Amino acid sequence: QQPVQSPQAVILREGEDAVINCSSSKALYSVHWYRQKHGEAPVFLMILLKGGEQKGHEKISASFNEKKQQSSLYLTASQLSYSGTYFCGTESASGATNKLIFGTGTLLAVQP
Amino acid sequence: DGGITQSPKYLFRKEGQNVTLSCEQNLNHDAMYWYRQDPGQGLRLIYYSQIVNDFQKGDIAEGYSVSREKKESFPLTVTSAQKNPTAFYLCASSKSTGLNQPQHFGDGTRLSIL
Questions:
Q1: Which of A17, A33, A57, A75 is 20 to 30 A (C-alpha) from B65?
Q2: Do B42 and A102 touch (CB under 8 A)?
């Protein structure tokens, strides 16, 4: 089942913060985060494993709440380069392969 | 530099025609994937392959076919049975299909109907 991302879109000024959520109704093994700029390939950001792990990448970090089956992506002091569509991809806890189910994406626009 | 190359970047299909999208990787990855992306939608899995000469259907395999004769190559054929082929097609690869493997994507092929 497709994970639900929220919000669908967000507009920020440079330097502002944002949070993007990804929720699943299924028990998850991990959550992957990708960013895609218009007309380009998605770029891998990070993987969160079950266990409530939190990871960071520059000023972008994420957490995974196993009890809620939810991952949140935190963008701090946003830069123009952060603009794009963010997708979460989930791996089921019952699966044995890297078969990701992607959410519908969150469009992030950072304005000067 | 290692990466994934998709070609062509743009492709047009006539009614009743089969077209083949190319995907080549030099990352020495075992696993490869094909996704379809429609406007405002997430990525939906068409086919994936864990190893040479083996592949499995994804969530929307009808109207598509693939082959995996070489580790580096995973071409996708959009057949005439696919009635709504207009979309952005993305190829990806990962070291294996084990859990916790990031996927690396090509730049995509945009397919349209003439």
A1: A33
A2: yes
